[in-house]
Each structure stands twice: as C-alpha cells, then as structure tokens.
Amino acid sequence: MISKQEIKHILETVSFKQSVPPFLKSIYSDNINVKGFNLYDEQLDLVEEVFNNIMGSNLGCAVVELPTGYGKSLIAMSVMILMYHFNMIKQSQASFVVCNKKLLQTQYHDSFKFLLLMKGKDNYLCPARSNHITASVAPCTDPNYDCSYKDSCTYMCTKTAMDSLPIAVINYAWYLTYLHKENYWRFNGLQVFDECHLMPSMLMEKLNVNRLELAEQLRAILIMLGRASASTLPEIVARAESYETIANVVEKEVKECVDILRARASSVGMLDESEEQLHDWASTISTNIDMFRFLSKKSGGTLRYDRIGDKLLINPLSGVYNAILSKSSYSLFMSSTIEEKYYLESILKDAGMNEKGEKRTVTYIKRPSLFDRDKRLINVIRGFRVSSRFLQSEENIKALVNLSHTIATEYHPEERGIIFVNSYEQANYFTSLDDPRYFVHLKGEALYPLIEGHDKSKNGILVSPVVSEGFDFKGDKSRFQIVFKIPFLAPNTEEEKIYGEQWYFSEAMNKLIQMTGRSIRNKSDYASSYILDENLDYLLRNFDPPEWWRDSLNYLN
Questions:
Q1: E-strand spans in 384-473?
Q2: What is the greatest pairwise CA distance in the chain?
Q3: Count of CB atoms situated within 10 Å of the CB of 3
Q4: 8 A C-beta contact, residue 219 and residue 278
Q5: Cα dist from 116 to 110, 157, 159, 191, whole Å
Q6: How many structural domains are present in the chain?
Q7: CA gyration radius, the chain
Q8: Which GO terms fall under molecular function for this chain's record (predicted)?
Q9: Within a domain: residue 305?
Q10: What is the pLDDT of residue 60?
Q11: I want to staple 186 with a disulfide (CB 3.0 to 4.6 A). Which of 94, 201, 270, 479 is the partner?
C-alpha cells in the first residue's frame, strides 16, 4: 500500500521523459519533463484508492464514477504516472487514454504535452500525393508499397512513434478499428476509458449489422469491380441468419476487393469520389469480419449475433468487454454516469477471469460531488411533457423557445449559456427571436466558429443539438444551461429488445447527466441548469441516478 503523502510527493516531483522521433519534434518537445501534478485533497484520496486497488492485482480493473468537474483526466494521468514510477508498467509497455471526441483528445494533449496524439487516417494528408488525399486511401495502405515520404509523413511518423512512446491518447473510433489487430500496437500497460458510459452504444454502432444495408454496399462494390459474385453474394447476405454465415461467405471476396482498390490507389495516385466510398465500405466490411473473429476467440465462444428484423445485434456485450480487457494488464473505466449494478452485473459480469484462467480483480469506486448544492442546482420546470409527438407541433416548439428565452432574459441577462435542443429543426426556431445573443447551430453549419463566437461574446447563448457531451464550457463560458427534452432513444428499438429496458433508461440518464455537467468543470465553478420536460419523473421511476445528481434537483412550478 502506498500512502497518500508518498503519492503527493511523487506527483509533485515526478519527471517523466519520452524521446520523440525527429520529425515530430515540431509537435512534441524532446525528453519531456512532467513535473508538478498538484491535486487537492479529495483528488489525492481518490488516486490513492484507485492506485492501491489496481496495484493489488496483476490484472487490476477499476470502475470509477465521478461527478462532472471532478478532474477525471488529472486522476487518470496521476494513476498512470504512478504505475510507471513503481515499475508496475515498464517503459517498453504502452498505455492509452481513450476518449470520445477528437476535441477531448486535443484537450488531453494540451494539458499533458507528453501524450502522443493519435487520430484516425482521415485526419492526416498524404505528402506522396501533394496532400490532396488522406492517409485512409494513400498508397501506403498497400502493404507492399514502400513510400519515400515515410520519414516526413505525420501519419506514418505518429504511427511509428506508438512503437516507442509509452503513452498516447486515442479516440474510441480508432481504438475499436484496431482492437482486433494483435500485433498492431505494443499494449500491455494501462488502458483508461474516459466517458466510458458511451462505450455500449459505440460498440453497438460499430459491431451491429443491418443485413440489407450491408448487402447493398457489397453489391455496389462487386458490380463496380466487375466481380461475377455480384449476382449471388448480396442475396445471401440479405437473408443470412447469423453474422458468422456472412463472414464465411464474403470474407475472401471482400479482402480481394480491398486489395484491388488499394493497388489502384497506389498506381493511379488517388481514387475518384465513388471509388473512395467503395474502398471505405470494403475496408469496413473486412475490418468488421476480422473483429468478429477476434471477439469470438477472446470471448471463449460465448459471443453471438441475435437477429431482430434486418439487424444482427452482438450479444452479450460482456463478451466484448472481456476482449477489451484482454488487451492490457490494467484497465480504468471512468465517467460521471456509471450505474453500479448495470456495469458490474451486466457489462463486466464475466470480467473476473481472463482467457488464460488468471483472476482479474474488478473494483467499483464512486465519489460525491465536490460542489455546494447551490452551485449546481438543476431546476425542473413543470408544465410540459415533451414527447416526440409533442414536438411535432410548431406551437409547442415555440412555447419551449419562448420559455427558454424568458429564463435567459429574466434570470441570466448578462451571462453566457447553452440550450440543448434535440434537432437542427428545433434550433432553427431560435433564429426567429432576432436576438444577437443567440449563436444558433444550423444544419450544415460549422460548429467550432460558433463556439468561438459564443466564448468571446459578453452574454451569448449557444443553441445546438450536438454539444451535450465532450465539450468544456467552464467558468464564465456558461453560467446556465437549458434542456429541452429528456434524451430518450426511440422506444421499442431492436437494441432495446436485445439489451433490455435497463440499457434504454441508462442511455437517457447518461446523456442527461452529461448535459447538466457541461458548465460545471471544477471545484470553484458554478452554473444553473433548467429541465423543461416533466418526463424526468418517468425516468427517475425507472433508473436511479447518482445520489449527488438527484440531490441537485430543485422543482419549480
């Protein structure tokens, strides 16, 4: 056991070095010194508990539920640095922080400059093709292509650096794309999953299959390449009762198509727009088949696909999590919206043993809010039961817009804020107010210039359907936030039939807690939230939120 005082001393004096490859020195400093992790007492207590629980097992796994604004990134990096300091993880072993959005990746990198920032191929331009195409269709996607630009290509240098630098920050899309590639990365250290409440829905989006959509994509690929199988394979896929059938039937053909398209990209320099789309489809199908093989192996044969209508849904999710846990010695799941029973009895219910029969310890840790209740009030306004049907009425939407405008005008005239709507159509109604305070995110419009304008304004109000998670509006950037509607998914979806009611209500509560936490980001911060939907009562009857969040509720008539 390592004492709190010892941890404090180490984090205040630690020096952590990474040798950066020459080409990346413009992005990262060489031999980076990380000194002075200054944590307040509550954070130190948590680091001590997490570290000592993980340290007590060769296969430690901790699930940590923290209120928004607790400082998850600082907690995660402190635990990771301690593990390297005590040689629980060796410099030859890689560790990762996995985030939801590229913006959050950048925030991690800005806060901890020693982190290698690795994004997907679409974020890197190809110097071999005068930066006209991205790395996703570059000649180097052909494994036989030896690129003369590899020493000055940001993508290749960053990818190579992952073989030497111990710590990187990646996003979930990247992680899930390469999860199945056993030899793609050095990986036996600590993996940290930030905003881990998003993982179930991301896994479903990545792994679940719509037979008809897949059949049409396959048909387009095969027809374009003149493959004789275009008349037979898509029909087999459209009627397949299992994903294993699909994988067995199309695997060889799809991989050949990927090779053909890669060779074409290499020889002609770039693919046209339609060819690039087909290349993306073929690559995704091929990757998903490889992922299916990997997950089936790691789950010990317990993983299956259940068919509901035209969808093939992976089940159980706990089998996928076992495969994820197999990638490292230590795992840390962190979020402000983790429901203990759901996570331990459903998501991680089979995590107690790895594929070698070695015992894995799973610890659940949670903390109360550090903020005074008055600094984080969530005001529930009665009067509207906002359903999808309710929002079909233009008058009803206008009523919500007018109520939001009244709250902003009467209670927060000199403060900036955020309004969470559910669609661009709803956001558009705010333009009719003809008020320069509103920065309205319309469909097709770039979001980040709007956020910059809002942040620089005196009392601007950002209205958007896409800023509920992964965005940081700390301090005076936002002192109030308004929630139009409880974010229920469409009822009776195929996913709900497979994963159950608990998953359905968990998804809604997770999103709601994330919304009400965007404006309260540290111990000294404060903001008021307003929920305009009485359906909160229905959600609370079916799902128990964290105590600190329920305690923040303040009902208004």
A1: 417-420, 438-440, 461-464
A2: 70
A3: 10
A4: no
A5: 11, 11, 10, 14
A6: 3
A7: 25
A8: ATP binding; DNA binding; DNA helicase activity; hydrolase activity, acting on acid anhydrides, in phosphorus-containing anhydrides
A9: yes
A10: 82
A11: 94
Question: What is d(CA 191, CA 491) in angstroms, rounded to the nearest whole number?
Answer: 34
The phi and psi torsions of 119 (rounded to 5 degrees) equal -115, 175
428/241 Cα distance (integer angstroms): 43
Percent of the chain with pLDDT over 70: 89
Rounded CA gap, 508 and 487, in Å? 5
CA nearest neighbour of 68 among 299, 376, 360, 507: 376
Bin 36: left if φ > 0, else alpha if -120 < ψ < 50, else beta: left
Q: Count CB neighbours of 245 within 10 A.
A: 15
Exposure string for 64-91, b = 16+ CB within 10 A, e = fewer: bbbbbbbbbbbbbbbbbbbbbbeebbee
C-beta of residue 549 within 8 angstroms of C-beta of residue 197:
no
Phi/psi for 171 (5° steps) reads -110, 165
Instruction: Give the pLDDT score at 190.
Output: 92
Q: Are residues 491 and 402 in the same domain?
A: yes
First to last CA, the chain: 52
Q: Which of 312, 327, 350 is the last residue of a domain?
A: 312
Query: How far is it, in rounded angstroms, from Cα 384 to Cα 482?
Result: 14
> Cβ–Cβ contacts within 10 Å for residue 442, how many?
14
Give the chain's residues under pLDDT 70: 16-36, 57-58, 141-144, 163-165, 182-187, 266, 268-271, 342, 345, 349-359, 492
My answer on whether omega of the bond before 316 falls inside 30° of 0, hence cis, is: yes
> Is residue 391 within 8 Å of 485, Cβ to Cβ?
yes
Of 170, 132, 124, residue with least CA distance to 24 = 124
Residues 459 and 413 reside in one and the same domain: yes
On the 0-12 / 13-18 / 19+ scale of CB atoms within 10 A, 274 is exposed
Neighbours of 299 (CB within 10 A): 20
| Backbone φ, ψ for residue 261 (5° rounding) | -70, -35
pLDDT digits (tens, 9 = 90+) for 423-451: 999 999 999 999 999 999 999 999 989 99
Q: Which single residue is written with the structure tokens 């208004």?
A: 556
Structural domain of residue 127, as residue ranges? 4-131+165-205+317-366
How many CB atoms sit inside 10 A of residue 95's CB? Answer: 26
Cα dist. 134→125, 145, 199, 373, 440 in Å?
A: 4, 16, 27, 48, 31
CA distance 107 to 361: 31
Residue 30's pLDDT is 47
- Cα distances from 469 to residues 37, 42, 73, 132, 421, in angstroms, run 26, 25, 15, 32, 13
